[in-house]
Amino acid sequence: MLIDAHCHPFDLAEYLENAEEERRRLGINCASSATTIEEFEYCERLSVQAKADNAPPLVPCFAVHPQMPSVMGNGTQMFFQDSLSVLDTLAAQKRLCAVGETGFDLYNAAFKETEKIQDELFAAHLETALRYDLPLVIHSRRAMHKIFANSAEIKKCRAVIFHSWSGTIGEGEALLTRGINAFFSFGAVIILNHKEAMRCCAAFPPDRLLTETDAPFQPPRGKEFSRYADISAILGAMEALRAQSGMEKIIETNFRAAFY
User: Fold this and answer.
1) Could you say which of 79, 123, 145, 235 is the most buried, measured as most Cβ atoms within 10 Å of its Cβ?
2) What's the distance, CA 108 to chain centroid?
């Protein structure tokens, strides 16, 4: 079974009306990211219906994205409190399969201005993941120092999925050496000539790899948006980089180890 370890079905539906039909037709098992209760409930409905139809599963996840403090601007404290309450409720009701995507984004000056809020949000998400024994999906851009600063607590998570891995080979190996049950997910970057991502994809142990589209947000070159159908090209690029066939089955096994 093909695996899309990180996508945004709610947002993708705005670009591609028949996205769920495409996912089912291609037999793709995916983990869906949501940042509001509306998005989560949409993904949850898809998940429930897929199970009823014996279709490829969809794993619902929820978190406050680390870019949101910057994007939303002032007056967001109540929103974040409400969102964290929703996160706890979903986890307590066993409706949540993973906490994420959470983490840190220090890519530009605007995001850096919200670093303190990102710290507070990450701490809250990590606490929920540990309390309810849920996997943690991490978004990290130019913030690996923050990941290592929290590594002692992150290590306690049952699994940690690094969405769209942007670190180095050495950083990935160091996370594993520290005992973190880390999985490294790769998307369109490995077909867009991102050298370090390609090196990491080729070098990491096969039982630590995942594939993703981040649909609709990481389009291949020349496309307006990414979609589920792109996962085949990403998997093919992974196999080419590693000179290793049979990765589809390995990725499926890794996905189950990470999320189930």
Assistant:
1) 235
2) 21
8-state DSSP, 142: S
- As for how many domains the chain has, the answer is 1
Q: Which domain holds residue 67?
A: 2-259
Distance, in Å, from the CA atom of 101 to the CA atom of 168, rounded to the nearest integer, reads 20
Rounded Cα distance, 44 and 90, in Å: 11
For tokens 């949501």, what's the residue? 34
CB burial readout 70-89, b (16+ within 10 A) else e: beeeeebeeebeebbebbbe
pLDDT along the chain (260 residues), means of 10: 98 97 98 97 98 98 94 73 96 97 96 94 98 98 97 98 97 98 98 96 98 97 97 98 97 98
In CATH, what number is assigned to the domain containing residue 254?
3.20.20.140
Distance CA 9, CA 44 (A): 10
pLDDT reported for residue 75 = 57
DSSP one-letter code for 145: H
Q: What is the pLDDT of residue 233?
A: 97
In this structure, the number of other CB atoms found within 10 A of the CB of residue 24 comes to: 18
Q: How many other C-beta atoms are found inside a 10 Å radius of the C-beta of residue 159?
A: 19
* Cα separation, 55 vs 1, whole angstroms: 11
